Amino acid sequence: MLTIFWFVIFVLSFFVLIQASRYFVESAERLGLKLGMPSFMVGITIVAVGTSFPELAVSIIAVVSGATEIVVGNVIGSNVTNIFLILGVTAIAAGRIKITRELLSVDLSFLVGSSFLLVAALLDRQFTISEALLFIAGFIVYVLYALTIEKEGKHGKMVAGRLDHKGIEGSLIMILVASPVVMYFGAEYTIKAVLKLSEFLNVGVEIIAASAIALGTSLPELAVSLSAVRKGKAEMAIGNILGSNIFNTFAVMGIPALFGTLFVPESMIVFGLPMLLIATFLYFFAIRDNMTTKWEGWMLVIFYFFFISELFSV
After folding, report:
1. Cα–Cα dist 135/118, whole Å
2. Domain limits of the chain?
3. Which CATH architecture has domain 2-311?
4. pLDDT tens-digit profile of 2-35?
């Protein structure tokens, strides 16, 4: 009964976290446009980055709670899920996705580089403040690049810009103030539930983070990606997913580590990191011909189910 109770708490608190993050991003997007921010800047600094707010909130609360293993599991699991499941399903739904030179020349390089840097940083089984600062610097470099590309109109990332610029509504301010508070409590009870479920199920907290939390935080991106496919803008969805992975690696690893050294569990060293590298390599080779097909999408999805099935036996 206790297991069911804490599973319900996990689902409810995680739902609250996701919804609060969505309201925060939407209100910040509206406020940015109403204040006259260029749409490309809103798209990169608020919308694209905002999709990873749940991962960041969970990771910060995990460090404060002393469960730092969750951070590594969260980042690795989210990145593997984004490549195997989200990119895979997007490719299947689209049938064929043409990849532009900008994604191949820079975004893909950032994705591969960030993955290898993460592996190198975690091999000693801890993630220190000095490494965190280095990762945050990498995130800043990527954001500056993304802002430059968007301003020049060369990239395919989805941006906001559909909203009006009338007077600022008081409700926007209220949502911006209230939603982070709700996110905090949602993240706090998510972590509490994960710790309890880990105890009852006798599995590591990083395993739950790499599976359930990673899948939950990736579902909004799946919805956005499928919506982009329906609108004939599948490549934009891929750009956003790649950007989300880069943000996860640099910021979701870097920022929480400012609150304390992160512990890297053995399961993530022997299984999580190799699967992350496999995911990165598979995607790298899948788009070597400037194209991703539905058959390659099926291959990625198969690898995702392999990842989940093997994760609990590590």
Report:
1. 9
2. 2-311
3. Up-down Bundle (1.20)
4. 888 989 999 999 889 888 888 887 787 777 777 7
